[in-house]
Amino acid sequence: MAGGERKRKRRKLQLSKIFTLLSAKACFKPAHSQIGRSGFSRVVYCNQPESADYCDNYVRTTKYTPASFLPKSLFEQFRRVANFYFLVVGILSFTPLAPYTAVSAIVPLTFVILATMVKEGVEDWRRKQQDIEVNSRKVGVHQGNGDFDFKEWKTLRVGDILKVEKNDFFPADLVLLSSSYEDAVCYVETMNLDGETNLKLKQGLEVTMPLREEADFKDFEAFIKCEDPNANLYSFVGTMELKGAKYPLSPQQLLLRGSKLRNTDYIYGAVIFTGPDTKVVQNSTEPPSKRSMIERKMDKIIYLMFLMVVSLAFFGAILFGIATREDYQNGIMTRWYLKPDDSTIFFDPQRALMAAVCHFLSALMLNSYFIPISLYVSIEIVKVLQSIFINKDIHMYYEEADKPALARTSNLNEELGQVGTVLSDKTGTLTCNSMEFIKCSIAGTAYGRGVTEVEMAVGRSNGNGNEYDVAAEPAVKGFNFRDERIMNGNWVREAHADVIQKFFRLLAVCHTVIPEVNEDTGKISYEAESPDEAAFVIAARELGFEFFIRTQTTISVRELDVVTGGRVERMYKVLNVLEFSSSRKRMSVIVRDEDGKLLLLCKGADSVMFERLSGNGREYEVETRDHVNEYADAGLRTLILAYRELDEKEYEVFTERISEAKSSVSADREALIDEVTEKIEKDLVLLGATAVEDKLQNGVPGCIDKLAQAGIKIWVLTGDKMETAINIGFACSLLRRDMKQIIINLETPEIQQLEKSGEKDVIADALKENVLRQITNGKVQLKASGGKAEAFALIIDGKSLAYALEDDMKYIFLELATGCASVICCRSSPKQKALVTRLVKTGSGQTTLAIGDGANDVGMLQEADIGVGISGVEGMQAVMSSDIAIAQFRYLERLLLVHGHWCYRRISKMICYFFYKNITFGFTLFLYEAYTSFSTTPAYNDWYLSLYSVLFSSLPVICLGIFDQDVSALFCLKFPVLYQEGVQNLLFSWRRILSWMFHGFCSAIIIFFLCKTSLESQAFNHEGKPAGRDIFGGTMYTCVVWVVSLQMVLTISYFTVVQHLVVWGSVVVWYLFLMVYGSLPPRVSTDAHMVFLEALAPSPAYWITTLFVVMSTMMPYFIFSAVQMQFFPMSHGTIKLLKYEDQCNDPVELELVRQASVRPALVGFTARIEAIKRSVMRSHQPGP
């Protein structure tokens, strides 16, 4: 216990010292003058939660509540046009106008609505369970008298004092009061909010630092006034009144819900925002009711069908009215068979107009069979089963974390096959938050034989598959470097051993890493603000420069002595730390070595480092630049390392000026600090460059390559800084060296100078004009290139994006973005991510898919047509707000190219077939009604009508939607061009839909007229009786069942045993039904009594007519399909032919298929390799 306590105290001192070097005291700023005014009116009584009346801390992601489920779900069902139509028909079926019984109309509708509501309820209950899990987490809450008890998150109130422990998430937005460190410092990981992996340093106010024990809060009372709830993650303005004095609060004291406490044993904080008021929830939106494009289009088809039903009913009513009016001839009704004596108005020639109106309403109900009532429920069943297949796909199961894919809603399955744009978060989605030191350039010499995924792809393309198969897993996490020239101390024999020594010494000293020694094993581990720094320190250790102790003012390193060859311990006194920032793009430390030399050690981006080299410090500049470019081509992140010796006088002047700048309380304090550091970070001597691989999740580059080949554009929306995002772009092949980067940002010196002077409105107008000018210039460049989209990549920062997304500029920005091959939005807030997603969705008209893993991605996931959450290690908010959850980004390839493609084809074919079979059936009813003088007499028995869509034709089409495959999963991945059928919506275009409808009309006409011609005016059986309505209807119904079943056989691409059973079983069930139903008493079977057993089955005419009619009806489609497959095949048809002819591995044939792509790949491995090939070919061309 004593050793552990000493260790904690030691770490407290270490962290405190680093923070002291980096920070300065809080001060009042102009924004604090707004406290108490509109937008800044929140009042918090710390330790007195009962004094505030704010919302509770319960957060929900469900679509429904117990109170809203029934009305909202009923609205969801009856906003579907078909359901509303059948509701009206069901109500009318209770009137004498109905040509069938009311039960046959109401029961199917009730079943459809209840089944769908149950499905929606089950899906929302799953979301509810996840909400319960999060809201039931516990945290220590002050109960009074200095006692802290664990309470559930949902019970927290504004003003509560919490104790949050290491590696726990903050349950609400808190003001930091104190921590386990004496100066109230804590480390916070905000990756779940802004995507950044580096830890943020937070510090409580000096006045609350002593509150370090639970008992200290017994009598603690404070009064906080601050801004009202808002969505801005990066700002906070408030004041704390304590012991009669006011203290300013800033983002430095704000701990946000969803972020995690790291490297700190515990903190105490006061709750200021709860539940819906927290900033992370303010950045989210209500869970939307998403409907797929196909479902929305299906409504339009229903409208069309309804228009057709009304038109046919209106046409029939007119003819019926005319015939009724002229029905009397010599005082006798010519249509006596309609039994006019039993009717009052329906056939009264004296009231022909009213009879026509009644006929119109009856015809509307009779013709309702054109519209498939079982369509929606069948699609719901199919989608649920498709979702189960997605969930059970072993190829999307992440064994390491025991996480399968999870389709949280089944409404959007077919949308997965139509995605045109993927909008992806970076950290935790593309990357796995791990850096590996893999190469370096020292004194103009390149070291490191490791290979990146990009290099492996190039090697395979050039035929070096064995050499570049799979990169070896590093034995040490963060270190994947292999080069015998400098490993194991061999660097001492290199020509520039002195430079190598300085290079690795700089890596071991220039950082803010904290070492921790395991007292049991003696092994040293490192806790760093960013994975980059950890990788550098680990690399230095593995190569002989082991950083092992940090005190308040010193760093100790064990290193190899060049002269003696032994290991020695050296101590460096740390005088100053000049921290990294996005504007500085570099980090420096000033140290004094054991010889008394003052050294400035600096590492930073090449864009700022080369210009700071001295005249005699550029000896290796040319070679280093070449190496940096090579590393960038390989997708690596690079930093330049340089140093200089300082003289005592220069350092004294610097110390005086930096102290003055840090003590300043003016608004331009940061600018003063930058000005001082700028003057000392110059005249540097170049040592070399590092190259680390921002470790992508396994398979990310390959997945992006496949998606690009499928014609899908990929945008990266990240809260990370621009340099990091660009490096990731190179790593996953979204960017290449030969791409021209259109960079839009407001971080130029001119803009920064402008922001220091002038009024806010004037500055805002100038910034907006500047962004517009940059976008316009980008469009000019794009136009000048002749539309070669592959040559351009758009990169824009968050500040510029705020202006680019304004109403008068957003479509200009979108036009530029869609003209570029890659788009990367950096420093994006969660709200901006959602707005960009909305812009792409509405402006491009394409199906959008957003994918992310953090709470900062929730708005984006909800705004996109499809939201995919990565079920990683950092919380579950993204998953809880997503439509589909997967464990790794690489699974997106299979999710879209396999399941998406299959689901789109299945649902498209299923819907088209549904309308075909119902038009075939319904139009025979209409033709018979026309044949019987529009009497609204149905051609079939009531139960024939009711069971057609339920029993005799529903199961085959459901199995089509579940099991059908045009090609196997292997071929879906091998030929990504197949996916473009969905992107282009080729299988559910109006042309294809109308062609299926036309096919249905033709089939109905052939069936009706051939049956009528075959059976009329001749004896049907050996007794010489002609065919009546019962025989004609039974024969025609049999032909319809056979035709739609055989059409299903021709439509299915992939037969299973189940499909054989249901297709042929439907025909068998029809015959069994005829026998069983016809055998029932006449009061039950009515006009179907013994029709099959006594009339149809014994008659050869029935069987011959059925065979002849079915063959005649199927022949046109069979000929059409054969001609299309042979001479005009679609992509899947071409691949099927290749498979049939065993040419699927023929390079020539494969290239022909790829060339058939309407959208060539512009990014990814394939595009990068092709660009390298073109570059090599150009370099070998003889000069003019």
Automatic annotation (TrEMBL):
Record organism: Eruca vesicaria subsp. sativa (Garden rocket)
GO molecular-function terms, A-Z: ATP binding; ATPase-coupled intramembrane lipid transporter activity; magnesium ion binding
Catalytic residues of the enzyme: D425 (4-aspartylphosphate intermediate)
Necessary cofactors: Mg(2+)
Residue ranges constituting the P-type ATPase C-terminal domain according to the UniProt record: 879-1129
UniProt name for this protein: Phospholipid-transporting ATPase
Entry EC number(s): 7.6.2.1
Location of the P-type ATPase N-terminal domain: 44-105
Gene3D superfamilies reported for this sequence: Calcium-transporting ATPase, cytoplasmic domain N (3.40.1110.10), Calcium-transporting ATPase, cytoplasmic transduction domain A (2.70.150.10), HAD superfamily/HAD-like (3.40.50.1000)
Protein function: Involved in transport of phospholipids.
Assigned protein family: Belongs to the cation transport ATPase (P-type) (TC 3.A.3) family. Type IV subfamily.
Annotated Gene Ontology cellular component terms: membrane
Location(s) in or outside the cell: Membrane
Organism placement in taxonomy: Eukaryota, Viridiplantae, Streptophyta, Embryophyta, Tracheophyta
Binding residues for Mg(2+): D425, T427, D853, D857
